[in-house]
Amino acid sequence: MSRLVSRRHLAAAAALRRSPAAFASRWLHTPAFATVSPEEISGSSPAEVQNFVQGKWIKSANWNWIVDPLNGEKFIKVAEVQGSEIKPFVESLSKCPKHGLHNPLRAPERYLMYGDISTKAAHMLGQPEVLDFFAKLVQRVSPKSYQQALLEVQVSQKFLENFCGDQVRFLARSFAVPGNHVGQMSNGYRWPFGPVAIITPFNFPLEIPLLQLMGALYMGNKPVLKVDSKVSIVMEQMIRLLHECGLPAEDVDFINSDGITMNKLLLEANPKMTLFTGSSRVAEKLAADLQGRIKLEDAGFDWKILGPDVQEVDYISWVCDQDAYACSGQKCSAQSMLFMHKNWSSSGLLEKMKKLSERRKLEDLTIGPVLTVTTATMIEHMNNLLKIPGSKVLFGGEPLENHSIPEIYGAFKPTAVFVPLVEILKNGNFELVTKEIFGQEVLGRSVNGTTYAGIRARTTGAPQNHWFGPAGDPRGAGIGTPEAIKLVWSCHREIIYDIGPLPKKWALPAAT
Amino acid sequence: MSRLVSRRHLAAAAALRRSPAAFASRWLHTPAFATVSPEEISGSSPAEVQNFVQGKWIKSANWNWIVDPLNGEKFIKVAEVQGSEIKPFVESLSKCPKHGLHNPLRAPERYLMYGDISTKAAHMLGQPEVLDFFAKLVQRVSPKSYQQALLEVQVSQKFLENFCGDQVRFLARSFAVPGNHVGQMSNGYRWPFGPVAIITPFNFPLEIPLLQLMGALYMGNKPVLKVDSKVSIVMEQMIRLLHECGLPAEDVDFINSDGITMNKLLLEANPKMTLFTGSSRVAEKLAADLQGRIKLEDAGFDWKILGPDVQEVDYISWVCDQDAYACSGQKCSAQSMLFMHKNWSSSGLLEKMKKLSERRKLEDLTIGPVLTVTTATMIEHMNNLLKIPGSKVLFGGEPLENHSIPEIYGAFKPTAVFVPLVEILKNGNFELVTKEIFGQEVLGRSVNGTTYAGIRARTTGAPQNHWFGPAGDPRGAGIGTPEAIKLVWSCHREIIYDIGPLPKKWALPAAT
Amino acid sequence: MSRLVSRRHLAAAAALRRSPAAFASRWLHTPAFATVSPEEISGSSPAEVQNFVQGKWIKSANWNWIVDPLNGEKFIKVAEVQGSEIKPFVESLSKCPKHGLHNPLRAPERYLMYGDISTKAAHMLGQPEVLDFFAKLVQRVSPKSYQQALLEVQVSQKFLENFCGDQVRFLARSFAVPGNHVGQMSNGYRWPFGPVAIITPFNFPLEIPLLQLMGALYMGNKPVLKVDSKVSIVMEQMIRLLHECGLPAEDVDFINSDGITMNKLLLEANPKMTLFTGSSRVAEKLAADLQGRIKLEDAGFDWKILGPDVQEVDYISWVCDQDAYACSGQKCSAQSMLFMHKNWSSSGLLEKMKKLSERRKLEDLTIGPVLTVTTATMIEHMNNLLKIPGSKVLFGGEPLENHSIPEIYGAFKPTAVFVPLVEILKNGNFELVTKEIFGQEVLGRSVNGTTYAGIRARTTGAPQNHWFGPAGDPRGAGIGTPEAIKLVWSCHREIIYDIGPLPKKWALPAAT
Amino acid sequence: MSRLVSRRHLAAAAALRRSPAAFASRWLHTPAFATVSPEEISGSSPAEVQNFVQGKWIKSANWNWIVDPLNGEKFIKVAEVQGSEIKPFVESLSKCPKHGLHNPLRAPERYLMYGDISTKAAHMLGQPEVLDFFAKLVQRVSPKSYQQALLEVQVSQKFLENFCGDQVRFLARSFAVPGNHVGQMSNGYRWPFGPVAIITPFNFPLEIPLLQLMGALYMGNKPVLKVDSKVSIVMEQMIRLLHECGLPAEDVDFINSDGITMNKLLLEANPKMTLFTGSSRVAEKLAADLQGRIKLEDAGFDWKILGPDVQEVDYISWVCDQDAYACSGQKCSAQSMLFMHKNWSSSGLLEKMKKLSERRKLEDLTIGPVLTVTTATMIEHMNNLLKIPGSKVLFGGEPLENHSIPEIYGAFKPTAVFVPLVEILKNGNFELVTKEIFGQEVLGRSVNGTTYAGIRARTTGAPQNHWFGPAGDPRGAGIGTPEAIKLVWSCHREIIYDIGPLPKKWALPAAT
């Protein structure tokens, strides 16, 4: 894995060369709010991630070491809060009343404040050096190509732009309907939950936690945020940026911990709502533990259907390659399965996909480590699939070579396994595809979350301008849009003003 | 309890007199769809309640006898489905696909069908004899004054009127936002959950189950409905009315069972959503069992605040009396506590309330049996309150006399116990009221569900034109309005159409 | 024209036969509110149409005779108000304040009243005998097939269903946005205009005036309604129905007059808004006279495009025939021009259309008199078209035969004239069609009002569930939907409540 | 008027002193896009205002000289387009198709482009030196205090913030309702008008034209903008800023002309919509000329009511002073009349208002020239009022002294004239105030446009977050909010997709 070693190496060499001007250099490359430099974090110069609670950055009794996914070096130490240390977090959450930090009838100036914070943060994040800072920081902990990492930061930046000026208060738009008599009117408000929790995964270290965090804040909630420790350094830095843009120190707590401690915190602090993004297994457990006071954006199993009309093969093979292998297939929306009408078999699609997959290389992280599954597990899964009659490896199917990815992570080439549909259907679970109902019918007969349809369809569009999230589940959470923020981070409250006057000549009626 | 006995008696006598013309008489008093006559149900002529599943009315291996709350006679037998008999219900639910019976892209003609069903049902229910039929039937099982029972039926009728014509399809209104390039547009739909369950309590035998049932159906779900067996006869009759108005037999199942069996059914049939209206204790258990796939409209603890401005004492004493004692205080919204500024102490308010409470009598059911708490329990609770220093009985505080209400139910006079606020506050739970923040401030600093504010405010407004339900809980369910139906009975689904064309001169980009 | 003569004849004969039982017969066939019997109006038994103002039906100094479009007999006399008689109408309008008869803050119980009126009127109009009554009455004055006339009544009935119950008050839903400080909130209301006028044409004697009238009333306006005298008998009867359903006598005035008198009325009474449906020529004059206080739904010039994909020829020829010739082409949405891709020339489409057009016959009014253009004018227009090189008559092109349609009306067979596109384009006005941009592109590059797209597209869908009206004009009015009612019949009013409290420690700032 | 003379004088002296470094100085004080320096414009160094059409800045055959409202010097020359020179403007407008430059189905990337332009412009305008530049430029042509001028710029800046990111495309949100059968769905879009015109007055040289201009552009229109020549220099500079932020040169034309020429342009270019802000007289004429294709935000006659509860006299006298005299009373929303309940007469309110008015001085422009009425006219008007029995001057009532305001403008002290209500009412026009219906009733019985109610109410709130504009007129235009932009700058277009499939077994029906 010479390139990556040498990247580190060269960086170190460069650091030496530029010393004693290193400080100045830091100032050139690192934004003022930042406490780390993405390119300089290494085993010999590890970064520290802290917690934030009750307005202060704090450490903990324990450090949890994170290893560099590209070379296995311990390169980040995270101050993980222990079960015995959660009291300040519980106290902090409990300071937030049930009616929130603001709501349409209380402290409305805070809506404006969040408009201002968003304006400033959007502008700061939009500076080339800040975009670059976060893109590179994302790359260090959640390896993906620079383009993919940059896109994640840009989407986050656009999201902040969407809530400049008065747009936060516009989220709190209410409605009213005339009542039964003069002086009566019923009002439907969007009300905050008050103290809330946010738990987010490793694959989008910035976008997922930032968008949910801001959504929660906009609507008047006080969140405690926990990001997967492997990548929490990114949001730790982002919170510093937000503080610099005016985020009040009391409004957000930030905690690093293991799952057991977080579970304990949730049960003790009893947030009115918890947003969980992550695996379905944990989601279901949490849903039961929290008795349903939860919204979930769980892992998708994402599929694509190519109908009988063969067209635009070059374009579609490219979209398939990107949807399946960008970010090493670790997007929530990564294409897991491709249903292909037989007409496509002679179209050259699979050959083109093979070629495209072979362009991917570790050097530029167009393929990289898988943070949740080991190589061995992936091989085992593939071998199980290959036991199905008629199945075969189309391409890939082998571990990556010449790398220093640590064994706890996966390192596998972009791989496609062909399985005949008839065999899948023996399991009886996919009755939908048995009938030839491609096209529009599929939309009316499915409940998939965010769905793309049409010749330019893809599975991995997760921008800030359309709802992204599951469907068909009352606990399902969306991310990103005004609609998502309102539905996830607030509830309906009805107030009927009935201010009179009393009817003239009101007389006491009989009891009923 | 001579009056009630003689009511029975007279009815029986009348029945004898009019025999053999009884059949004709039934036709005069009982709507065509009905299988019971509210005034004739009695220990000697008991009514039967059946279940409906897979398009057929069915009985069960067991009858559960319901006793007349006014005289303890076994007067209704309910075919309660046993744990061993739930298979047809499980199968029936499983026939409904996850994408529902209809959705904005599938079977839209069903939205129109439900507009027609609502039109017909609204008209049928609006006929004086049908209003009367249901009001009297409600009275028999959930004793309240004729006025209160009639109001429940009228609200249900108005609700149906609200969804005549195209109004059901208007509930499925979606929105769309322009995409990034020609041919792309993102669409936000309201999507059904598919198979769902509805569990409702005894206090509003018609309004709660009917409104939730129709809401579920409008949005494309297939519900199984369970109403508290004590009162399920009312909805059993209503489903017959709905069938007559065109409700397809496959669209709704109706089950009578105990809680254990229903729990089993939920776990086996695994409805995508369950609406539960009832006690908080059961609600929390269900929420955990169903891992949060639930929405709740749980029992409220409802309070009223009288601020420092004393005015309109006659009117307010009447509202307090109605809010506290109508339906024997068994409305979800019944006034449980009244906070009164000291200025009111010399206003005569309490004296007026006492007088009003004394107008209530068993004869016209302006006071009646309490179906969930025994007399002994109420006395015990009162005695506990009276141990608080300074507390005292203002009025009531004694069991009803001269009645034949069975012992399993409560029979207690309208009662008010005074407790000094300072003592309540020793428990530390009501910090809100310590400060003199009466008026508008209270609204901004609370999360109560449906809230009335102003001189004409009450706690027990539960009509069809404004949201009724809790706030502050992500699982909270509303009832009644278009907003409530959309938020409770459907979820957001995002479909992005990206139909092209491809950009002219599209060329293969580098991998990312 | 034997059939029609004999229809009259038979009716007369029947009338004789059933006398003296005529009264009983009237009761069988005519609804209680009605003052005419559609089948019995004739030259010998003419009907009378009156005016309604200030709560009373009134006549006028002059009768205007309407001739039967099928045989030229004077069969209806209309009490047309003269210029000298408009004073009561001016006074009546002026009694309505600028803030309307109701608005979200005033007399909200009137929203409920209109929900009730709509419920009752929907039910009454939905009775088979009432549907039949209005369908036949429409046929007598605006000849079209029974099916077409019935459809007009049914759409009107569905419209009324849409505004049952609380749906009228839901139209007055307002919104509010949090202000800059506690106590401030800005509210956007839909406010009525107050006194308004409605002027509607001959082609939909019931649907257009009824839908606009009710929309105006729902939002709190007081309308004076003028329908083309040729057909005003239909709305005269409908207003009687509405009165019976609870419409307050003071809420609507109904006037018959010529255009000059109506113009005078508008200038004197100065309604805050006038809705005009009719010819573009009159619309533009009125717009200037009323200085733009007008909304217009003017005559469309409606076209259909058949793109290069030839399919479903039978279906499409049927749609083309219906769109072009139903109601003798007198719908606002009638297909005036058909653009056909050359691929269709050998599809048999034109031959099929010819055959379908030949099914039409005067006997069942699938073709009938044209009320605004004489036969001679149509022939002249056709001859002008035929001067264009390459143009030809495809079918029709001749006057109807064997009829007694009076000369002031047109009587012409269903006709299609083919004109080569290249010739049309010489005029330079249709640059759009020069390029081969069929399909979706057309939608993005046009401003047509209500537009149907897709294989099942038609031009003449004018139901109650989607907006019908022009686009691209700030004066453009829609009809039918909640959206249309809100935009046409109300305006935005913003009220900012700023109820304090004042900031603590407010101190006098410097002047600015 | 020594201070102002010396301001000029000092500026000139400074300019001399800093020469030859003037260029560098310009760079310090003047933004890069600017072609003028607000502090340096003078009779000896006059500024030039050009026109912009078809992508180019152009002059004209004629200069119109604007005099400095503070000293009468000719200090700005405006290239006013003559009647013979309008051809390029007509041609430019005609290049914009009726379907606009973009719409929800065409060129959606332009919505994003306008989000970007707004983001950049909001940021640029938010820079302290740019805020200062525009505030001072506004002061030079529309004299008001620095605070007031700055506020105008800040509101404009906030408005731009509101449409960052995706917020422009969110304006184009459409809705859809399920149709009658599979494949049918009706869609309501907001569609542009295409070529449009905007005409705005002198009093808010930046805010009014900028907000309307951007609203028009956001929705897809191509506007030609005409601002009162006296102040058009401000928007001329703003358009340069917008170009620098990415505004395409073809999207906006900017014209200076007299009213006659503009009228000619409107008639020849025939814009689909014209937004006019200005005097009611011109508005009505334009409305007739343009046959109602117009929306109006005309001069308000704004009043304030003080009800019987006397409170917060200091605060209210300050609000009254600001509402009446800030910007020398030239805001559209300036308080023209104050209705005062008699309870206030002994409150000291009028005395306090007098004192506050006397704080105003020409030096800081807290009082300044009136650009539309001469001093003589104001005196005449006052004298007419004083003929009313019982009326008297409360304060003011005299011309300003020691000033060099030119005679064509007005120079008058802040003035209040008391008129007994009983005398006003003799005219019979104010029946509302005869009854003692103060408070909430007033809102339900009025049609005033933007209305403030409550103890903190004012007349002159014209921010970017709530609708500002008249009510009660179908031509009424709002400014500022998303709601206003959508209703003013777009129209409803309905497209019904009916894409099939055909019903199975479709068979040819009979003709109807």
Automatic annotation (TrEMBL), chains A, B, C, D:
**Molecular function per GO:** aldehyde dehydrogenase (NAD+) activity; L-glutamate gamma-semialdehyde dehydrogenase activity
Which Gene Ontology BP annotations are present?
L-proline catabolic process to L-glutamate
Q: Name one Pfam family in it.
A: Aldedh
Please give the superkingdom of this protein's source. Eukaryota
Q: Which residues belong to any copy of the Aldehyde dehydrogenase domain?
A: 66-403
What keywords were assigned to this record? NAD, Oxidoreductase
**Signal peptide residues on this chain, from the entry's feature table:** none
Q: Which PROSITE patterns match?
A: ALDEHYDE_DEHYDR_CYS
Give me the Gene Ontology terms describing cellular component.
mitochondrion
Similarity comment: family membership? Belongs to the aldehyde dehydrogenase family.
Q: What protein name is recorded for this chain?
A: Aldehyde dehydrogenase domain-containing protein
